[in-house]
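Hi Y.,

Following your request, here is the sequence exactly as I used it, all 304 residues.
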Amino acid sequence: MILFIVNSLSGNGQGLKVWKRIQPLLQEKGIHYRVEFPDNPVHAVQLLLKNVNESDQVKAVAVIGGDGTVQSIVGELAGSNIPLGIIPAGSGNDFARALGIPLTPEKALDYLLTGAIQKIDIAQSGNKTYTTIVGIGIDGKIAQTVNRSRYKKWLNMLRLGRLAYVISLLQILARYRPHTVNIKVDEVETIFSDVWLIAVANIPNYGGGMNICPEASYTDGVFDICIVHGISRFEALRLLPRVFLGKHIFRPGISMLQGQEVEISSSSPMLATGDGEIIGETPIDISIRKQAIHIMCQENRRVG
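Below is the corresponding structure, written out as tokens. Let me know if you'd prefer a different format.
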């Protein structure tokens, strides 16, 4: 049996619309399934655990939602043999993009039912786990602004969700003040001045497709870390088109690191996000959990 966790509100209602397209196909194919509609992330975990603990028939879990919905339950699946599948229905869908999962619901379902199962890495910070990128700095402010904005809803309806991140960046850039940051990666400590953002990446992309760490891989056992520092506001703005293409990494003001254990502190608190959701502020520690979950994705897919 496949347990479907459907975030009805994901993507401003896309989650429920996607489920209504998927349900008849499951019945047509004779797939044994159960569906749950959680009210919030905590409820999603409760429903997951209830179904898994009460029945040994749950052979896979499928999320219909975005990166935040995946994040809410992935920690409970870590270390288990129950694979996770995704049918994208969020505003960014960065994890699905990295996995090569089609954004069309019907194609994503075919992929879920026939794709290979592979073990992949996840990130851990405190007692929370993340699948995509932990971002610190201006991207935290961007995520906060996007989640509070009215235009996110309308852009999602027009299938232009990634533009919300660009609009928020333009709003915030003029008033954001960079910080001095101390970064320790696998016990090697470095101080960076005038830091705009730090991305600790398990996959290449976030923010609806910004290719911040183009060589990041969810199977190599290390994070790719991008630090943007020591550049002017105008230079930061000029970098934006290059970030979408992954062509920024050799430009001045960009430092790239790799490691398994990351500790970040700053001269004053900086917002942190995980999988696009606000998770706190610096200081923050992030570690990699190798091959922690089974995921339905393209076997041996090269990311980056």
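The longest strand covers residues 188-201.

Thanks again,
Q.
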